[in-house]
Every structure is written in structure tokens, then in C-alpha cells.
Specification:
The structure holds two protein chains of two kinds. By secondary structure, chain A is an alpha+beta fold. Helices cover 72% and strands 8% of the residues of chain A. Chain A is built from ten helices and four strands, in the order αααβαβαβαβαααα. Chain A has a four-stranded antiparallel beta sheet with strand order 2-3-1-4. In chain A, α9 runs antiparallel to α10. The longest helix of chain A is centred in the middle third of the chain and has 43 residues. Chain B is an alpha/beta fold. Helix content of chain B is 29%, strand content 26%. In chain B, a hairpin with a 5-residue loop joins β1 and β2. In chain B, α4 crosses α5. The longest helix of chain B has 14 residues. Chain B starts with a strand and ends with a strand. The chains are: A alpha+beta, B alpha/beta. The interface between A and B is medium-sized, with 22 and 25 residues.
């Protein structure tokens, strides 16, 4: 075994053998700056809670938009001279266009029936027409982000007389999705930076308070990883405590909000509360673990020369 | 074990702490470094511990060159050395056992092995009855014994004791010197710095006498 491998093995053994010691050190460190540590965890918890609100909004809106996207349709009106087989062919041709989910023919009668359904009690107004105002068309369900490409492609197909594309509504939906995604990403970046700053600051405070012990360990030959480990563990634990606080707040808030709006907003396709809570909990705990370790590493290595 | 050739140590403020120090120490020796306060005893020990680096000349401890470029290796070398500091550098708020064990925690020993070794060291320095006492509550002499136990528990190749007799009365000082001497064996060398040369009147050990940073006498 090489000298380097032997060194790594001893370091791992040291960490394994000294778990009890490290946890005791973390306890001592937290006790030394109890109030500061407590406030740091609360701050991290509140920051993660704000993030979870932003992310909930992002996910719920995403879900709504996705549902609307699935309904994103354009109507293709074909030339009246086309025979039924030609209309079928046209429909099949449209189905092959990239970005088209489904294309189906809506005949005159079906168009009429749909309008009757929409008008409900007022459907009798349709009786004033001597001739049916409805014509057959092809209903095309498309992927919202490919709307432009689909329209360009459809314009090249012969036999199509007119396309009703709802382009403006579709683009607005697309913009909403983009803005919400941007806000979500910015939220994650802001929370990450805040957690890093808070964790690294609290670790620096701990290192400053225990600088004489650290110096003694260095004089006795302790490797830097051994000295750093309790501080990394401390940052990890404080950050995860903050994350857990945020998760608890989330569970309560989401259930509270869902109980208030259930029934009132049935037309909004909300994510199921359980899957939202689960997703947010996994996200927040993962972020708190990751940024706890990174933040405390930053704190430790920036305060190395105490 | 230790080889110094024309070593100088100058501090950043320009103070020349050591001048032209050349010495050779073989394994299994007991050596006293004598001299009044300010003669350079602590500076010499700092060089041997790798806390300071020679400004000029070459120094090797346990075959390890002692210079700034060797920083990481010198950290590893310290694990082979048992230092006893003038101010002990014990960790307050912990008991004697924990203070002794702290010096062994990064040597790859199991917790059970560490505890046995630490308790044995406390027995050797006569402090078994203070094993679980906080070091904050110990007397000066007892704290010094804990520091000695910490140094010897990890079975070092080299014990370096800086002024271990300071602040002790005559009898206790002699006891400490006898105790430290007892750790010398074929494997371990012991180097003790002290200004109390009168304590060694009846002893026949190798001594280096320092004055104003230079070795003025070797006996």
C-alpha cells in the first residue's frame, strides 16, 4: 500500500473511531455560541421557508400551465372543395408535423353540438340560422413551446384555407412559464447564497472562539481534515435543523392553504398536497445538507489562519 | 535523530534568536538545554517542533528537513513528537483523560486502545485519581503532569519539554525532571530545556548551554 493510500486510510479510521468525540465537539461548539447558533438555524429555516413558498408557486403554476398547454389547440380550416378522403389525408399529414400532439377532424354536426353545450340554455339562438353557421375543421393539439414551428409548417401544407391559432394567448402563457421559472431559479440562488453566508459566518465565529484549541491540535500534529470535521458537522447540523424547521412550517402552511381553497378553486388543477409536501421536503433537506457542508467548509478554510 | 548545521533563527521583527547552532542528537539520549531566560532555549525547541523554521542553515528532525516548504510533512512529523509546552496548552472544560486522549485521536487508534494508553500514561505520572477531573480544577503541578501524560501516551520518538520546572518548588521540580528522564529509552529521546541548572548539580547528563542565542558550552 502506498504512503498516500495509507494516509487516507488512517484519516478514514480517525473519522470512524472518533464519531463520539466529533459529536461532543459539535455540542461544545454549539453551546459556546448558543444564541448565535440558534438564531442562525432560525434564519436558515425562514430562508428555506421563503424558498419553499416561491418553489410551491413555481410548481403549482407549472402544473397549471402544463394542464393548459395540454389544451393548447389551433383550428385548421380546409378548402371546401376537398373530398372526405383528402381531408383524412390532410389530417394524417398534420399529425406528422413535429410539435403536434394530436389532430382530429371535427365535422359540422360535432361543431354544432359543442356550441350547444357551451351555450347551454341559450342554445336556442342557433335556431335563428336557416343554414348551419358551422363548418368542419381539424382540431390540432400542439406543444406550446413549438407553436411557431407548427404554424410555419402548416402554412406550407396545401389544402389549408385558414388557421385560427390563438397565437397571442399561447405566447402569453409561454412568457408566464418563463418568468415563473426565472423567479424559481433566482430564489434558489438567493437562498443558496444566504445559507452559505450564514453558515460560513457562524463557523468562523466558532473557530474564533476555539482558536486556542485548534492551535493546540495543530501543534500536536492533527491533520487539517481532523480539525475541520467537527466544524463541517456543526454547519451541516445547523443547516439541517433550519431545513427541518422549514419543512415543518411548509407542511403546516400547505395543508392550511389547501384546506382554505379546496372547493373554492376547483377549476385550478392544483398539485396534490402530499406530493407537493414530499417534493418540497426532499428539495429543502437536500439543499440544506449540501449548503450546510459547503458553507461550513468555506467558513473553516477562510478562517484557517486564526 | 536531530542534526543541525549552522542554524540561525531570526524573527520577523529582526530579533536574532539563535546563531550558528550546530548539534547532533542520537536516538535514546537525554539532553538538557540550559541557559538563562532569553538565551534561546524556547526558540530552539520551537525549531525542533516545527513551529519556527531556520532562517539560515539546515536542520533535520527524525530525517525530516525542517523548512517552510516541508509544511505538510512537518505536521506529520509532529505526530512522532511529544511536546510539553511551557503553558501546557491543555484544553479547559475537559477532564484529564480527554486531554491525554486528544493527542492520540488522529493516530488511527481505536477508542478502546486510546483509552487504555491514556489511562496508563496518567498512572505513570501519578494522576490516576484525577482521570476524570476537569483540568481547570487541577493544581499547576497536576496540570503539568497531564501535559506530560499527553506527550508520552502516544509513544513519541522524541519528547520535547520546554521549561517543565518553571513555577515549581525544588522538590516538585526534581520529581518532574526524574519523571521525564524515566521516559528515555532506546526508542525515545528526551530533550528538556530549563533555566534551573542548579537542579542538575548531582546529575550526569548531556547538557547544552545557551547564551544570547549561541551554544556556549557542551558537557
Amino acid at each position: 500500500m502506498s504512503k498516500q493510500h495509507k494516509g487516507v486510510l488512517i484519516r478514514l479510521k480517525n473519522i470512524f473511531y472518533n464519531w463520539g468525540y466529533f459529536l461532543k465537539e459539535v455540542k461544545t461548539s454549539i453551546r459556546l455560541n448558543l444564541i448565535a447558533n440558534l438564531f442562525s438555524s432560525i434564519c436558515i429555516g425562514l430562508i428555506f421557508f421563503i424558498l419553499s413558498i416561491v418553489v410551491s408557486g413555481w410548481w403549482i403554476s407549472g402544473n397549471v400551465v402544463e394542464a393548459i398547454q395540454k389544451e393548447a389547440e389551433i383550428s385548421v380550416y380546409f378548402q371546401e372543395s376537398l373530398s372526405d378522403p383528402e381531408v383524412m389525408q390532410l389530417s394524417e399529414r398534420i399529425n406528422q408535423v413535429v410539435g403536434v400532439r394530436e389532430a382530429q377532424i371535427v365535422n359540422e354536426q360535432e361543431a354544432h353540438d359543442r356550441m350547444v353545450k357551451i351555450l347551454g340554455n341559450e342554445a336556442h339562438v342557433l335556431e335563428v340560422f336557416d343554414d348551419s353557421p358551422f363548418t368542419s375543421f381539424i382540431e390540432v393539439n400542439i406543444q406550446l413551446d413549438k407553436a411557431q414551428v407548427v404554424l410555419e409548417e402548416l402554412n406550407l401544407i396545401t389544402g389549408i384555407e385558414h388557421i385560427r391559432d390563438n397565437q397571442e394567448v399561447l405566447s402569453q402563457l409561454q412568457r408566464i412559464v418563463q418568468v415563473l421559472s426565472l423567479v424559481g431559479y433566482l430564489g434558489i440562488i438567493a437562498v443558496s447564497l444566504s445559507t452559505l453566508i450564514i453558515t460560513s459566518h457562524i463557523i468562523r465565529l466558532g473557530i474564533y472562539a476555539r482558536r486556542e484549541e485548534i492551535n493546540t491540535l495543530r501543534l500536536l500534529g492533527a491533520p487539517e481534515t481532523f480539525i475541520a470535521f467537527p466544524f463541517l458537522l456543526e454547519g451541516f447540523i445547523l443547516s439541517v435543523i433550519g431545513g427541518l424547521m422549514a419543512v415543518v412550517l411548509n407542511i403546516w402552511t400547505i395543508h392550511f392553504i389547501y384546506s382554505r381553497i379546496s372547493g373554492a378553486l376547483t377549476f385550478i388543477p392544483l398539485l396534490p398536497a402530499e406530493s407537493l409536501v414530499l417534493g418540497l421536503s426532499v428539495l429543502i433537506l437536500s439543499l440544506s445538507m449540501f449548503f450546510g457542508v459547503i458553507g461550513s467548509s468555506m467558513g473553516f478554510f477562510s478562517a484557517k489562519k486564526v | 535523530m536531530i542534526n543541525a548545521q549552522a542554524v540561525y533563527l531570526e524573527y520577523p521583527d529582526g530579533t536574532l534568536a539563535l546563531k550558528d547552532i550546530s548539534l547532533q542528537i542520537d536516538p535514546g539520549q537525554l539532553i538538557y538545554i540550559l541557559g538563562p531566560s532569553g538565551s534561546g532555549k524556547t526558540s530552539l525547541l520551537k525549531l525542533l517542533m516545527g513551529i519556527e523554521y531556520p532562517s539560515k542553515g539546515t536542520l533535520e528532525v527524525l530525517h525530516q528537513p525542517m523548512n517552510r516548504a516541508e509544511g505538510n510533512n512537518i505536521r506529520s512529523l509532529r505526530r512522532l513528537v511529544g511536546p510539553i509546552f511551557q503553558d501546557f496548552k491543555l484544553i479547559n472544560g475537559r477532564d484529564s483523560l480527554e486531554n491525554v486522549m486528544i493527542g492520540m485521536r488522529f493516530l488511527g487508534l481505536s477508542p478502546a486502545k486510546m483509552e487504555i494508553e491514556a489511562k496508563n500514561a496518567l498512572v505513570r505520572v501519578g494522576l490516576e485519581h484525577k482521570t476524570f477531573s476537569l483540568v481547570d480544577n487541577l493544581s499547576w503541578g497536576e496540570r503539568q503532569r497531564v501535559a506530560i501524560a499527553r506527550a508520552v501516551a502516544r509513544r513519541p520518538r522524541l519528547i520535547l519539554a520546554d521549561e517543565p520546572t518553571g513555577n515549581l518548588d525544588h522538590d516538585n521540580a526534581l520529581n518532574i525532571l526524574d519523571l521525564l528522564s524515566s521516559f528515555k529509552n532506546d526508542y525515545t529521546s528526551v530533550i528538556i530545556s530549563t533555566h534551573a541548572s542548579h537542579l542538575l548539580d548531582n546529575k550526569n547528563y548531556k547538557c547544552l548551554e545557551l547564551s544570547k542565542g549561541s551554544i556556549v558550552k557542551t558537557t
